[in-house]
């Protein structure tokens, strides 16, 4: 009887871990939504001038001649977003090692869906903007905002198969890889080779700390990571790329296997129990303190720095960094002049790329892969479920806005039009995805578990 209870634990641990991730992303999506609405209301209120003035406030850090001075909006987009991309890098590394992208059979469907979901929207946009100044924005409709997408999916509760949630998360991870490559290759305008060499040197040292010297403490990686970020910022390559590359150097191995961990915990627990003395507390009981330190050592050895850092960063990214990014970037004036220009090529390219291109690319790729017998649909999902997920993949929001800021010069009309089109397209895609999964896709919560 006890053995039957122990066996399911690894699977339960994976599902519980994903469930926590899903709830975190979903709650973060709600925080994003609140900050987006706040930004739009503020930017279209009598206090609109204070909104723009706040984000243009210059913030300066440094000592002596080593000074970095930037507007607040740039500290957010270049600095805080580097932390976000660092977390993305950790998630990518985890998915490649043990997650939904760790085996070929698991990888084929989400990779195909993500590639289709990037290529088709880009073609939609380029087809409407070829030969124009706005053609540089072809990367905008390629992106997916996983927090918003999972936030909408969470509203459907048990109607949505767990397999579909994992599939959409894996698609978004591959989508992030594509966005990172696009930013690094196509949105780098100038290159300082000296600064780049410093940044790459820092990354090599970080890799050596992990692979050669086995350093697991986070402080050396943090110090070197800041240096790498600054070097990339000065090199001309967007600083967020430094976050992704730095994440790849973080240790992902353990120093203690499961049996040793259990044995050390059991021994420490016995020592702790035997040391219980009436009238004494842990503060005055040396044997219990030693036992607790042994437990702490066992925990540190049995876990990985990657998962510990990822766990620590997730709340900050979900409930601080991304909402701040939305508050600073989503505030666009909805005046009559801008609304009249919504039917310009850049706006139409973004709208149709996110709303139509994502549906065609993601759903079409899944159908083709399945028909060719290369990979099955995710567990307990149908093509209708995948169509709903494809609609939600069209919620580009923060990632699309981020790329728009890189594609066009700050403060230009193209940036404003892009942001409005992204907001409208994300809203339409979110509503469509909800409707498809709510009313058209089969309700698995009413099915038997057999």
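^ Assign residues to that structure.
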């Amino acid at each position: 009887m006890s053995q039957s209870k122990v066996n399911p634990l690894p699977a339960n641990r994976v599902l519980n871990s994903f469930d926590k991730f899903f709830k975190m992303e979903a709650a973060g999506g709600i925080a994003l939504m609140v900050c987006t609405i706040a930004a739009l209301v503020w930017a279209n209120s009598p206090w609109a001038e204070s909104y723009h003035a706040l984000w243009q406030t210059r913030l300066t850090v440094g000592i002596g001649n080593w000074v970095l001075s930037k507007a607040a909006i740039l500290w957010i987009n270049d600095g805080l977003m580097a932390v976000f991309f660092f977390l993305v890098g950790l998630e990518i590394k985890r998915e490649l090692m043990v997650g939904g992208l760790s085996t070929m059979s698991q990888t084929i469907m989400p990779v195909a869906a993500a590639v289709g979901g990037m290529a088709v929207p880009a073609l939609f946009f380029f087809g409407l903007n070829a030969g124009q100044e706005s053609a540089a924005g072809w990367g905008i409709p390629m992106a997916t905002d996983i927090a918003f997408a999972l936030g909408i999916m969470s509203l459907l509760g048990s109607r949505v198969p767990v397999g579909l949630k994992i599939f959409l998360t894996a698609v978004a991870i591959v989508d992030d890889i594509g966005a990172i490559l696009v930013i690094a290759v196509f949105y780098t305008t100038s290159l300082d080779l000296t600064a780049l060499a410093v940044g790459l040197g820092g990354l090599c040292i970080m890799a050596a700390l992990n692979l050669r010297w086995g350093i697991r403490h986070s402080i050396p990686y943090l110090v070197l990571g800041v240096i790498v970020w600054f070097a990339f910022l000065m090199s001309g390559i967007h600083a967020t790329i430094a976050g992704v590359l730095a994440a790849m150097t973080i240790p992902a191995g353990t120093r203690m296997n499961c049996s040793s961990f259990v044995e050390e915990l059991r021994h420490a627990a016995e020592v702790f129990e035997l040391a219980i003395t009436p009238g004494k507390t842990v503060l005055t009981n040396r044997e219990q303190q030693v036992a607790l330190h042994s437990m702490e050592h066992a925990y540190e050895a049995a876990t990985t720095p990657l998962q510990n850092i990822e766990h620590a960063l997730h709340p900050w990214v979900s409930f601080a960094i991304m909402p701040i990014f939305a508050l600073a970037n989503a505030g666009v004036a909805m005046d009559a002049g801008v609304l009249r220009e919504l039917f310009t090529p850049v706006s139409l390219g973004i709208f149709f790329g996110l709303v139509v291109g994502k549906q065609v690319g993601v759903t079409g790729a899944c159908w083709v892969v399945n028909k060719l017998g290369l990979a099955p649909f995710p567990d307990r999902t149908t093509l209708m479920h995948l169509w709903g997920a494809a609609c939600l993949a069209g919620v580009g929001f923060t990632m699309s806005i981020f790329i728009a800021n890189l594609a066009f010069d700050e403060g230009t009309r193209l940036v404003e039009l892009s942001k409005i089109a992204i907001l409208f397209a994300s809203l339409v895609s979110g509503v469509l995805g909800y409707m498809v999964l709510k009313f058209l896709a089969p309700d698995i919560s009413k099915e038997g578990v057999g």
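Residues 1-11 have pLDDT under 50 and may be disordered.
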